[in-house]
Amino acid sequence: TYAIEADSVTKVYLNRQDEVHALKPISFRIHPGEFVSLVGPSGCGKSTVLSLMAGLIRPSSGCLRIFGKEVTAPSNRVSYMLQQDCLLDWRTVEDNITLGLEFRGRKNRQTSHDARQLLELLGLRHTLKLFPSQLSGGMRQRVALVRTLAVEPDLLLLDEPFSAVDYQTKLHLEKLLTDGLKIREMTALLVTHDLEEALSLSDRILVMGGQPGEIRRTLEVPEELR
Ligand code: ADP
Ligand code: ADP
């Protein structure tokens, strides 16, 4: 089975009385373990594609399947990371990271152990008892990445996760992401405006645009560019 199968998926938003045709019928398939980037101009429908996969909105027509199952609601197998870190300011770093695990019904002790291991790996161990407001922007996004990976999703959805951090932090986070993905064989779909990022991370790039809501072309990324 494919990790993702989109068959003639469309999305029409209703804005008061107006219909916004955000996606023309789009179709594509992504294999398990593949890393695919989605690039294209603002407003071409990239976030809409991710929201559909996350089960946050439903297609207006067509069918979207994740690991063979039609997406009808948010799934435990999918983890979503955004540009803004969405950390909860009233919970410590550790409690932010375990939040996702708690939602997924893991036992607390194991949760805590997993979180500590990941933080150790990322050099964040000394931040466990701190609150997000005590961290720099780059550190916060690092914590957000740990939280996203900690639930060991089968599918990782990333919407410009590194666009608000400085260049060095971005490179570091990209490295952590690829290391994390290698260990766990996750499938990933990344929305980005950053061509270098798309090239260095992806197996394949879907270019949206031309007409809004269309996939204009698909590029295989040669090994030597990564
Ligand atoms: P991108 O992520 O490529 O910038 P989006 O998926 O956010 O594109 O948006 C695609 C189109 O759909 C845009 O015209 C946008 O204004 C519109 N759109 C997105 N979300 C909504 C919404 N909730 N209601 C109405 N229109 C929306
Ligand atoms: P991006 O280009 O980074 O995707 P946008 O500014 O297009 O960001 O969209 C940010 C959020 O606003 C998204 O969740 C999108 O669904 C929503 N949105 C975009 N356009 C509209 C719109 N015309 N009406 C309502 N919500 C919208």
Automatic annotation (TrEMBL):
It holds the Pfam family ABC_tran. InterPro entries: AAA+_ATPase, ABC_transporter-like_ATP-bd, ABC_transporter-like_CS, ABC_transporter_ATP-bind, P-loop_NTPase. Residues 4-226 form the ABC transporter domain. Keywords: ATP-binding, Nucleotide-binding, Transport. One of its GO terms (molecular function) is ATP binding. This is NitT/TauT family transport system ATP-binding protein.
